[in-house]
Specification:
Order of helices and strands: HHHHEEHHHHHHHH
Number of helices: 12
Structural class: mainly alpha
Strand content: under 5%
Distance between the termini: 32 Å
Helix content: 55-70%
Strand order of the largest sheet: 1-2
Number of domains: 1
Shape: globular
C-alpha cells in the first residue's frame, strides 16, 4: 500500500474518530453547561424569535476543536507544517474567541470584549501564524495566483505580510459574524471545506502546478487529514446545533473555523478561489460593514438589521428558511469556485 493510500485511510479514520469524539464530548459538554447554568446572553435588540433561545449553552466550539485535535494527533503527521500550522492557527484564534465568550458570560451581555481589543488580539495572532509559516522552508512565497488564468500571478513582495494579516482576520470575523442562526455558520462552512479538501488531495496526489509556488505537492495529503477531521468535528457539532440548537458555537468555534479556512487557502496558494467559495461569509461581513458606515456617515440603515441573515429575520423570513437558502447559495458559490479552478486545466 502506497503512502498516499495510507494517508487516505488515515483521513477517513480521522473524520470518523473526530465525529465520534466530538459527539461524546458534545453530549458531556452540553450537560455540564446546563448544570452550571452557563449560557449565551441574548441580544435585547435582536429578532424577537431569539428570546426563546435564552439559556442555550455557548462556546460549543471547544468540544469539536478538541475532537478534531485528538483525531489529527492520532492519524496525522504532526511534525509536518501542513499539519501543525493549521492546528496552531485554529487554537490560537480559538483562544481569542474563548476570551470573548467568557467575557459575555461574565458580564451577562451579548457583547464581550471591546471591538478594538479583540481586533488587536486577532491581528497579533495572525502575525504569530505568519511568523511560524515564514520559518518553514518553501513557505516564504509572496506570489498570489489568479483564480482562473493559469499563467497570471502577482508577486506582491513587501505587501504580502499585510495581505496575509488582512486575509486571516477578515475570514475569522466573517465566519464569526455569520454565526447568528442555528446551523448557519457550520453548515455554510462545508462548501469551502470540501473544496479545500479536494484541492489538497489533488495537489498531494500529483496535480503539479508550477505557478503555485508552495510545497503543497509534498504536504497536500497531510493537510487533507486536518480538513477531514474538521469535517467530522463539524458534523458532530451540527448534530447538536441544528434547529432548535442545544448548543451555540460561540466565538471560540467561529474563530477556529475562520482560521482553518484562511490558513488552508494561504498554504495552498488558492486564496482567491476560496474567496469565491466563501461568498456567503464575506457577504455577511460586507453587510455589517456597509451598515456601520451608513449609520455613522448618514445616520441611515441600509438593512433592517445587520448582518444579512438578521435583515431577513426582521423581514419575517423564518430562521430555517434563511439557513437553508444560505446553504444553497454557499453550495452554488463552491461549485462556481471549483469550475473556475478547473478552467486552469482545460
Amino acid at each position: 500500500m502506497s503512502m498516499q493510500q495510507m494517508t487516505m485511510l488515515n483521513s477517513l479514520a480521522a473524520l470518523l474518530v473526530s465525529w465520534i469524539f466530538s459527539m461524546v464530548l458534545g453530549y458531556l459538554y452540553i450537560r455540564k453547561m446546563r448544570t452550571s447554568g452557563l449560557s449565551q446572553p441574548i441580544n435585547p435588540d435582536g429578532p424577537k424569535t431569539h428570546f426563546a433561545k435564552a439559556g442555550t449553552p455557548t462556546a460549543g466550539g471547544l468540544f469539536f476543536l478538541v475532537g478534531i485535535t485528538a483525531a489529527v494527533l492520532l492519524f496525522g503527521n504532526i511534525k509536518h507544517p501542513y499539519t501543525y500550522i493549521p492546528l496552531a492557527a485554529m487554537w490560537a484564534f480559538a483562544l481569542v474567541g474563548l476570551f470573548d465568550d467568557v467575557a459575555k458570560i461574565a458580564k451577562k451581555q451579548s457583547v464581550g470584549l471591546r471591538t478594538s481589543r479583540k481586533l488587536a488580539m486577532q491581528v497579533l495572532v495572525a502575525a504569530l501564524i505568519l511568523f511560524l509559516q515564514s520559518k518553514v522552508s518553501g513557505l516564504q512565497s509572496t506570489v498570489v495566483s489568479h483564480p482562473w488564468i493559469p499563467s497570471l500571478s502577482w508577486d506582491i513582495g513587501v505587501w504580502y505580510p499585510i495581505a496575509f494579516l488582512f486575509y486571516m482576520v477578515t475570514f475569522v470575523n466573517a465566519v464569526n459574524i455569520s454565526d447568528g442562526l442555528d446551523g448557519l455558520a457550520a453548515g455554510v462552512s462545508f462548501g469551502p471545506l470540501l473544496l479545500l479538501s479536494i484541492l489538497a488531495v489533488l495537489f498531494g496526489t500529483g496535480l503539479h502546478v508550477d505557478y503555485i509556488q508552495a510545497p503543497i505537492h509534498e504536504g497536500g495529503m497531510d493537510l487533507f487529514v486536518v480538513l477531514a477531521a474538521s469535517v467530522g468535528g463539524l458534523l458532530a457539532f451540527l448534530w447538536y446545533n441544528g434547529p432548535k440548537a442545544q448548543v451555540f458555537m460561540g466565538d471560540v468555534g467561529s474563530h477556529a473555523i475562520g482560521a482553518l479556512l484562511a490558513i488552508s487557502a494561504l498554504l495552498m496558494k488558492v486564496e482567491l478561489i476560496i474567496i469565491v467559495a466563501s461568498a456567503v461569509f464575506l457577504l455577511e461581513c460586507f453587510s455589517s460593514l456597509v451598515q456601520i458606515i451608513s449609520i455613522r456617515s448618514c445616520n441611515k440603515r441600509v438593512f433592517a438589521m445587520a448582518p444579512l441573515h438578521h435583515h431577513f429575520e426582521k423581514k419575517g423570513v423564518s430562521e430555517s428558511r434563511i439557513v437553508n437558502r444560505f446553504q444553497i447559495v454557499s453550495a452554488i458559490a463552491t461549485v462556481v469556485a471549483a469550475i473556475l479552478f478547473m478552467v486552469k486545466y482545460l
